[in-house]
Amino acid sequence: MKIGLQARFSLLIVALILVLVGVLSGGLLLQVRTLTEEIRSASGEVVGEAMLDQIQEDGKALAETLADNLPNHLYFFRMDTIKELTRSVKNQNIIYVYVHDANGVILQDGTRTMESLGLDINDGYLRTMLETKKVVAWFTSHETGRDEGERVGTAIAGVQAYHVSAPVILGGDVIGGVRIGLGLKNIRADIAAEQKRLTDISETRLDRLLVLAGTATVVLLLLGIILAVILGRWLSRHVRSARGAMPSTFPKTATTRSATSPCRSRKWPRTLTNVTGCRRNWRSTRRSVRWTTWLAASRTTSTI
Fold first, then answer.
1. Both 86 and 124 in a single domain?
2. Is residue 253 part of a domain?
């Protein structure tokens, strides 16, 4: 099947448009997907850091508030009041609440059974708090809060608990302290829920972008087909015009003579068939010449 000049031009232009649109669409989608993954990862880290900052503020506020309300009760050893105050600060994120004396011996833990009563928590964090008379806070990969020679950073992946130790000061002297441990299980659940929400939002926007990119591809393809048809017609018309403007007659050359008379071709036939054909043509030409000469002579004689 022979394809016309216009169809060739149109197919070529459509193919170029398809390649261009495919490359641009693929690059755009790859870039958007990579950017979405980076935004999702960065958003998860930001959310985790924000929640850790929030739990640090909450933990320090609880410990300082409880320590500010305990000096008189701890000095006069009012265990019932201390117990009520200790139980009032407990919530679902708090693992433990300890009220201890200046030596680190636990006096109240806010539970009914008082399982931690009399335990010694005299560790490096307690000594730092007693020396500085300031709040000391740290993260650990366990929930006990004891000084086990391990300190972790603020990365949520390796953290199990956040601990705060605040001094109870009376008359400028430290008479005891408060230690609170906050678990991060609920925080992790909140972070996972927030990351899932961000993931859903990113996937929804990515789906919308895919639909938009597909629609733009179809529109560009249709415009390309229309443009290809127009350009194909224009190019084919100009090519036909240029072909029609060329001269139709040419001087006779060796090629022209060879086309009309194979016996006079510069390229002499080498096959027997061509040689035989040339001889037959030559004989026919001689007979025609003789017949023409005889006929002319006969007419001249009859006229005389």
1. yes
2. no
